């Protein structure tokens, strides 16, 4: 699922292409994409786009007269910029937004259609779509700490809960926790002042670095390969050191892989010993992804994700 850095990359690419342009038409192929009926989606047409912003993991298009189109890409939704009037792909296409400068296509590479479009009018209606988490790159340490300690959650759940922190999901929460040397199963209220400060700094540093990295990677081009899991991520590097675990019971494979990871990182949860404390091991992701979890694709990502952490004993 695109998270804060990836959504920021989309917004950066969309602004010079669409800001100030007239939304001439909205074409929807998948009816389930549209989650609102009032105002009608047709009321967006003919209005000029005056702003683009992020609300959590949603992209908000602000049009004249206080209209908003709110797109949530969910796990596999993606945006594509094409020539004006481009056809919506038959298999994976959801919708097309025709601007005077070109067409923005919304696609979803999944049989489960989870992406959504909300059309609302007025800031109060827009606020109703905001889960309420604080912006990790905008708040100070006190606000960050207060949000994190409102509930006694595991760090993994706290970082990925949109009611606590805005825009962070499985992939970037792993990066943050590895950078801070904090276990995902530690409880928020178990952290001492120094650990909370370290987590705050790692959150800002990791997200900022990925925003800058994606900006450098895409440059002026429209992002064509957006994913929350990047090859250069520390979490992928760490998982590449865990040997393949084969078996018919996915839960058993997950536990074996987790135990091996914790064995290889015995000081996970302690303060890092300088910037080189976690050296990047050689990459062996190709065979590893096929071996863990009985051959399921994307196993390293799921093993580091929220679902396995919740299900582990």
State mean pLDDT (0 to 100 scale). 82
SSE sequence, one letter per element = HEEEEEEEEHHHHHHHHHH
Separate helix tally: 11
Rg from C-alpha positions? 21 Å
The side-by-side strand order for the widest beta sheet comes to 5-7-6-1-2-3-4-8
Oligomeric nature of the chains: single chain
Q: Bin the strand percentage.
A: 15-25%
- CATH top level of the largest domain is Alpha Beta
Class from secondary-structure proportions? alpha+beta
CATH homologous superfamily assignment of the largest domain:
MutM-like, N-terminal
Number of domains: 3
> Segments where pLDDT lies below 50 for 5+ residues?
269-313
Give the biggest sheet. 8 strands, antiparallel
Question: Which percent bin holds the helix content?
Answer: 25-40%
CATH topology descriptor of the largest domain? N-terminal domain of MutM-like DNA repair proteins
Molecular structure report:
Helices cover 35% and strands 17% of the residues. It folds into 3 domains: 4-127, MutM-like, N-terminal (N-terminal domain of MutM-like DNA repair proteins, Alpha-Beta Barrel); 141-218, Orthogonal Bundle (Helicase, Ruva Protein, domain 3), CATH 1.10.8.50; 234-311, no CATH class. The protein contains 11 helices and 8 strands. The two termini are 26 Å apart. It has an 8-stranded antiparallel β-sheet. Residues 269-313 have low confidence and may be disordered. It has 313 residues and is an alpha+beta fold.
């Amino acid at each position: 699922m695109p998270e804060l850095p990836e959504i920021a990359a989309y917004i950066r690419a969309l602004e010079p292409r669409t800001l100030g342009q007239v939304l001439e038409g909205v074409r929807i192929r998948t009816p389930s994409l549209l989650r609102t009926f009032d105002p009608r989606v047709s009321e967006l047409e003919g209005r000029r786009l005056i702003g683009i912003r992020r609300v959590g993991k949603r992209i908000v298009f602000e049009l004249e007269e206080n209209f908003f189109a709110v797109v949530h890409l969910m796990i596999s939704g993606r945006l594509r910029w094409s020539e004006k009037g481009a056809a919506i792909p038959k298999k994976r296409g959801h919708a097309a937004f025709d601007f005077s400068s070109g067409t923005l296509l919304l696609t979803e590479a999944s049989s489960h259609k989870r992406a959504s479009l909300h059309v609302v009018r007025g800031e109060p209606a827009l606020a109703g779509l905001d889960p309420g988490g604080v912006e990790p790159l905008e708040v100070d340490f006190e606000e960050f700490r207060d949000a994190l300690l409102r509930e006694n959650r595991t760090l993994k759940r706290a970082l990925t809960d949109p009611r606590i922190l805005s825009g962070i999901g499985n992939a970037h929460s792993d990066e943050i926790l590895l950078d801070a040397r904090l276990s995902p199963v530690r409880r928020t209220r178990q952290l001492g002042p120094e650990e909370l400060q370290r987590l705050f700094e790692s959150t800002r540093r990791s997200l900022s670095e990925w925003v800058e990295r994606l900006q450098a990677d895409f440059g002026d081009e429209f992002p064509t390969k957006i994913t929350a899991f990047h090859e250069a991520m520390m979490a992928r590097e760490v998982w590449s050191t865990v040997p393949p675990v084969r078996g018919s019971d996915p839960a058993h494979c997950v536990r074996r892989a987790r135990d091996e990871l914790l064995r290889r990182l015995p000081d996970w949860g302690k303060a890092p010993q300088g910037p080189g404390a976690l050296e990047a091991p050689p990459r062996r992701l190709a065979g590893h992804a096929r071996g863990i979890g009985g051959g399921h694709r994307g196993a390293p990502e799921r093993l580091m994700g929220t679902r396995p952490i919740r299900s582990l004993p």
